[in-house]
Design brief:
It holds the Pfam family Zn_ribbon_ISL3. This is Transposase family protein. The protein has two domains: about 10-140, no CATH class; about 145-180, no CATH class. It has helices at about 95-105, 110-120, 125-140, and strands at about 10-15, 20-25, 45-60, 60-75, 80, 90, 95, 150-155, 160-165, 170-175. A hairpin with a 1-residue loop joins strand 8 and strand 9. The protein is an alpha+beta fold. It contains three helices and ten strands. The strands form three sheets. Strands 1, 2, 3, 4 and 5 form a five-stranded mixed β-sheet that branches. Strands 8-9-10 form a three-stranded antiparallel β-sheet, with no helix packed on it. A two-stranded antiparallel ribbon has the order 6-7. It binds zinc ion (ZN).
Length: about 180
């Protein structure tokens, strides 16, 4: 049974206590080529290390993935490299990319301390993820500034003010009434 639903990893072992799941995982497929010289697999396993990566909570418990990460050596150029996991893991934050997305959404409506408790990452990291997310939103969300702003009145139950972009023929806002202070 694959409770993780992470396509590049398989589960090697599993343990839990009152608050945490710890799941040992390994990558499914070896690297397809050497990142240094580009040669097709002429690689062998050189060493490995365990790396803790936090993931989405399961059944209200924090989840830590104990990743068995392998280092390979290339027979062609003699160089070594760690297998790449950046499709799934954010190395800088030591957590899965889907956990970052979860924290981003949660950080708009909950306290950093509460999220920190839930996911098992420190509050400072939660705050940094939130700050990066807000900066990204500010860069990508564009507010419309029409060349011609239309201000008109429309009767929907009572007279209401409509604000439109005349060139694009789009509605920008429909105000609850026609009072000027709105
Ligand atoms: Zn190589």
């Amino acid at each position: 049974m694959d409770i993780l639903n992470l396509p590049h990893f398989s589960i090697l072992g599993f343990s839990e206590n009152e608050h945490d799941f710890q799941i040992q995982v390994g990558t499914i497929s070896p690297p397809s080529h050497c990142p240094h010289c580009g040669s097709l697999p002429n690689l062998y396993k050189h060493s490995n290390r365990e790396q803790l990566v936090m993931d989405l909570p399961i059944h209200g418990k924090r989840v830590g993935l104990l990743l068995n990460r392998r280092r390979y050596k290339c027979r062609e150029c003699g160089q070594t490299f760690w297998e790449r996991i950046d499709h799934t893991v954010d190395d800088k934050r030591s957590c899965t990319r889907r956990l970052i997305e979860y924290i981003e959404k949660q950080s708009l409506k909950r306290t950093f301390a509460g999220i920190s408790e839930d996911v098992g990452m420190d509050e400072k990291t939660i705050r940094n993820i939130f700050r990066d997310y807000i900066n990204c939103l500010e860069r990508t969300v564009q507010f419309e500034t029409p060349n011609w702003l239309g201000i008109d009145e429309i009767q929907i139950i009572k007279p209401r003010c409509v604000v439109t972009n005349i060139e694009e023929r789009t509605l920008i806002n429909l105000l609850p009434n026609r009072n000027k202070e709105l």
